Amino acid sequence: MECHQGMGELSVDDRTKAYQQVAQGELVIDTLNPEELPAILEIERSCHSNPWSAGIFEDCFKSTYRLWAARRNGELAGYAVVTYQYDEAHLMNLCVAPAARGQGVARRLLQYLVARSGHDGMQLLLLEVRHSNKAAYRLYCSEGFEQVGVRPDYYPAPNGRENARVMTRPCLL
Questions:
Q1: Which is it for strands 146-157 and 75-85: parallel, antiparallel or unpaired?
Q2: pLDDT the model gives residue 69
Q3: How are beta strands 146-157 and 160-170 bridged, if at all?
Q4: Active-site residue numbers?
Q5: Whole-angstrom Cα distance, residue 15 to residue 63?
Q6: Distance (Å, whole) CA 49 – CA 27
Q7: Could you give the CA distance from residue 172 to residue 169 in angstroms, rounded to a whole number?
Q8: pLDDT (average), residues 139-160
């Protein structure tokens, strides 16, 4: 399965409008707080066969990481964890609560973190996605990501290990 969509060139005005549109709307996206760790872990454990531990999340509340929450009616619907290094943003984890799936939460989080990373001076966004995660792969393709490689045996799997697709796209700003 190949992504066949490119980004195209966007003017500064288009990029600024895109950032403002993503930053607004009925789904509120803001900073994830350490006090929300129990809710984060509940979502994480309900979504992943090999969930991150509390210690991993605690380590992510550092200056080189950005943690964003998607909230609907004040409740945590999903989150994203991104690390910044030089001019590159690396999406480490994007997760949506089972009750909030199919409502555009992952897409909005992804759009927000692309725009916000660009706004923060990042040039490129990189991520890995399980080869078997077709829904996530389609989402990333539809949002302008292109597969640039494969990391063999990257993820734990029930019968051993699973490859990861490596995907990138430019940030908006």
A1: unpaired
A2: 96
A3: antiparallel
A4: 128, 140
A5: 25
A6: 27
A7: 9
A8: 94
The Cα 108–Cα 92 span in angstroms is 16
- Rounded Cα gap, residues 117 and 97, in angstroms: 23
CA of residue 135 relative to chain centroid, distance: 14
Taking only the tens place, the pLDDT of each residue in 114-134 is 999 999 999 999 999 999 999
pTM equals: 0.84
pLDDT level of residue 3 (50, 70, 90 thresholds): low
Q: Which long-range contacts link 42-47 to residues 24+ away (Cβ below 8 Å)?
A: 43/76, 43/78, 43/79, 43/95, 43/96, 43/97, 44/93, 44/95, 46/97, 46/98, 47/95, 47/96, 47/97, 47/98
* Residue environment code for 128-166, b if the CB has 16+ CB neighbours within 10 A, otherwise e: bbbbeeeebbebbbebbbbbeeeeeebbeeeeeebbbbb
Domains and CATH numbers, the chain: 12-129 (3.40.630.30)
With H, G, I as helix, E, B as strand and everything else as coil, classify residue 101.
coil
> Of 31, 6, 14, which Cα lies nearest the Cα of 115?
14
